[in-house]
């Protein structure tokens, strides 16, 4: 009887421990939204919502892409340049404003992202290069190719995209927010597949997955390819938001994507977390950057403050997961 | 065995770098039997079964199952052929629920989406069958990381069973189980045997072999020695086959003095509970018992690599606060870790650097600058003393044989003039000659006044080498053997915690007795 | 049994030694650098002139000095890498130029402050990586943003000052034998670093930590202290590189040393220091730095770097890195 109650007690504490990152993320979200709503007068207006979600969507999308890869035990430091490359390919193909070219251009952009992801996936899964350096190297390849495709900012995005991106439904629901919802639903669908489960399995313990007849190599290739494809979507979102092409447009998103997923509770070593948290993480990150702006931090200090916030967030999240894992292990030993 | 055996493995060879794991092993077993694979550690039994399950790719050899050649490219292929394994190191995903782990790789689907209800239907019967092993509950949705080691092992067993295997491999699956859990497992194993499943069983526990196995194949040095029918072999012979011929070990001169060098009082760390003992200068103290009973934790706690929960350590009358290996080294404690490849040596670095690592600072000019001449001289002096064979001191350590590598792991401590030497199974996986030379080195260390603590997976080594042996079981010191009592037989029976009464029960092969796995005190 | 004393086994035949040399990254990169230079000299005879060679080596020296720390960090292992070297070099140059402000008066103070600031970045990197367990690549990548953010705050977007004349003389002046001072300095630093790695207990510990951190820890090495020191030294040497660059360019701009970030990794890896840690040395990095500088100059003559800015060079650097990685940076197979 005694052991039974003790067991119930530990499983409750286990539950709270497992949910801990999610609780922390939610608290952080509430705090930042409250602060933003206070400091940013027009936060809950159609204009404010559109402006916020228009900047959130690209970073959230890249964060989801990175999450798929990180869950599987990898990391993609080229993801920002994949965003850039697919966006410049898209903008080159639909330059001239002819709406009939839009579908083809979008398809080409997605294909570019998928191809880049596939390339990374093959390097990591088949050639067995360390993910972190291999994708670091490809980031220069993709970034260089992007510069060849579009050497300087330019190109115009058809009004269909830019206009559509700024639409608002039901007074407070802008199109980017709807797209974010669609992205999350797509993630849930992926999660429900076998491959969704295998992402977690491979990231959690590749050796054990292999011994359990999980197709580890294929799962890794899939993760990078899917990540590249989703990153290409972020490229399109950036284009729709800015209205023109830029050969550096997405490069800075790599670090942001990692920060967002870490804030959202995904473990950088893989196997735990999820894209939902990463979307929240991206929202928090964007709002914090807005706060830095609205709180009147001097222009010249903003870059430093933003950089410091990202680093501190990653470091604290790293410490938290290390702690809870250590606690979990020692508990397992004495149980 | 006839050539039509259900499972046949012939001429299987596997080398890892310079180490031969399997040296042309043959193996055959019939469906509907429980077949034990026995042998000391490093004899290749685990590797043999990993070849069968497809995790290890053999260099040579053939596997035939039910008359058909099996050439797996990986575990996916063997799983399809109906082979399931319960591994020694677990194949579970810690963050997954028990249910998700059970169906990993075989998730039922409905319209492309994972079907959790069907998964439950698939897994639940087995969990319910083992409910008793989970203390009466059915932990479908609990996270595997939150289960205790024994329960995880049971989950591992269920995971293999969910796949409905024709061949079930149990690789030391009982090592971390409690008595009740073993009982349930054995009931299931007997049912599987009835339904025509071949169960391959690796264990070190004699009583389990007697209780559930039909036949046994004994492995040594990477090949099979003999296959026997359990019922036809007297128990004593079986023990002999397991541990090797009980040749009278030549005991060496003791150099033990009366001076207490190391005094350990109530030390608890990791699996180790409340260890109290003394070691005298010049004494070689053995740590016996089955593997993983806390010997490694005792040694690493003494070295400061594992944080103790309680207890005091006194060295030459002074309390030692070894919170890190660095401090332990400063207090002149030396440590030879159990896994020389991953813990003892930087394999890619030159022999010279590996030799110098613990002591280079002492010889350095201003604590920094090294003289190549002086380093070479120091390394050569030690190498000669412990008769190490090498090409050049600048060659990577990985070019040496296992035995010579191990001598470097030991020899690198000589220049630090250790007062206490801790050795974790130092003779594991090295050949007979290197072993003899290594033991000579250990004796020499003791003769120079050091207190030596040594664990060994082979009891004969302890008999040969030690003045006194502490036997550990489930983290506690359960026996102290010295003098005339220090024989291999005493150690074997003491390690298995078998009394004469238990033996009598075991040999009658009553189903519900497993003396080897008594209830744990802390559960 | 005792052993032969020579460092290379004299008993082995010449063919064996040649085969071994053909697999030595230092030899391979050296031959590649030489071959590339010969090709470049054929395409453009100016390449072969003494002054052009000196210029090439001078350009290589900045990369070489910045890559010293990169080499130490990568040798120390644990996925060690320092991407912040470019930003740190820029930071040191900017602080240095502000305090020198074109005169020799505050030279010493300027150097101390610049290197001190660099060392602080190194400490932050080390603490983030060792205490907070942030992967080195992510930590140092993030530090780039922080350092540039700080530079922006510090300079208000407009870096001030210029190099001290003494620094300029040290870097570009023909001090001895008609060879620019910076090359002598590079030589001195190289000797120092190679000595540090090969003949000091610190160097041996660094290799041991990189080769097998468990074994090093269990031999009484304070592995965290060793790794921390590698990150601090990396930043300090990057700072030295930044100051030398300042002496060369006289004035500073915001992204002065940015182009050295990737090449510092590439030079180290091309020179045979493997990213798994515990393997390699600074001699290889020197060769790697020269090889990349020759390659870079060659691409410039071919005018590949013309209209599209950095693009082709970026792509080629990336591909070179990938090729080298596939040659000796692979991970373990799943199936044993």
Give me the Rg of chain A, rounded.
Answer: 21 Å
In what order do the strands lie side by side in the largest sheet of chain A?
Answer: 1-4
Shape of chain B: globular
Structural class of chain B: alpha/beta
Overall mean pLDDT score of chain A?
84
Mean pLDDT of chain B: 83
The neighbouring-strand order within the major sheet of chain B is 6-9-10-3-11-12
Oligomer: heterotrimer
Alpha-carbon distance between the two ends of chain A: 16 Å
Q: Helix-strand pattern of chain A, N to C?
A: HHHHHEHEEHHHHEHHH
Output the CATH class name of the domain at 260-486 in chain B: Alpha Beta
Please estimate the helix content of chain B: 25-40%
Which residues of chain B form runs of ≥5 with pLDDT under 50? Answer: 499-523
Radius of gyration of chain B: 25 Å
Class of chain A in CATH? Mainly Alpha
Q: Considering the protein shown, what is the CATH homologous superfamily of the domain at 260-486 in chain B?
A: P-loop containing nucleotide triphosphate hydrolases
Relative strand content of chain B: 15-25%
Please describe the structure with a list of short key phrases separated by commas or semicolons.
heterotrimer; B: 523 residues; alpha/beta; Rossmann fold; six-stranded mixed beta sheet; 22 strands; 33% helix; 24% strand; disordered C terminus; C: 336 residues; mainly alpha; ABC transporter involved in vitamin B12 uptake, BtuC; two-stranded antiparallel ribbon; globular; disordered N terminus
Blueprint of the fold:
The complex is a heterotrimer of chains A (335), B (523) and C (336).
Chain A: H1 2-39, H2 46-71, H3 79-94, H4 102-126, H5 131-149, E1 154-156, H6 159-165, E2 168-169, E3 173-174, H7 175-192, H8 194-204, H9 206-211, H10 216-242, E4 244-245, H11 253-263, H12 275-294, H13 299-334
Antiparallel strand pairs in A: 1-4, 2-3
Chain B: E1 7-16, E2 19-29, E3 34-38, H1 45-53, E4 60-65, E5 68-69, H2 75-80, E6 83-86, H3 98-102, E7 109-110, E8 113-114, H4 116-129, H5 149-162, E9 167-171, H6 179-194, E10 198-202, H7 206-212, E11 215-220, E12 223-229, H8 235-243, E13 260-269, E14 272-280, E15 284-288, H9 295-302, E16 310-315, E17 318-319, H10 325-330, E18 333-336, H11 340-344, H12 351-356, H13 360-363, H14 372-385, H15 402-411, E19 420-424, H16 432-447, E20 451-455, H17 459-465, E21 468-473, E22 476-482, H18 488-495, H19 500-507
Parallel strand pairs in B: 3-10, 3-11, 6-9, 9-10, 15-20, 15-21, 18-19, 19-20
Antiparallel strand pairs in B: 1-2, 1-4, 4-5, 7-8, 11-12, 13-14, 13-16, 16-17, 21-22
Helix pairs in contact in B: 4-5, 15-16
Chain C: H1 14-23, H2 25-43, H3 50-75, H4 85-100, H5 107-130, H6 136-155, H7 165-172, E1 174-176, E2 179-180, H8 181-199, H9 201-211, H10 213-217, H11 223-249, H12 261-270, H13 282-301, H14 311-328
Antiparallel strand pairs in C: 1-2
Helix pairs in contact in C: 2-13, 3-8, 3-11, 3-12, 3-13, 4-5, 4-6, 4-11, 5-6, 5-11, 7-8, 7-11, 8-9, 9-11, 12-13, 12-14
Domain ABC transporter (chain B): 7-246, 255-499
Organism (chain B): Nocardiopsis ansamitocini
Protein name (chain B): Ribose import ATP-binding protein RbsA
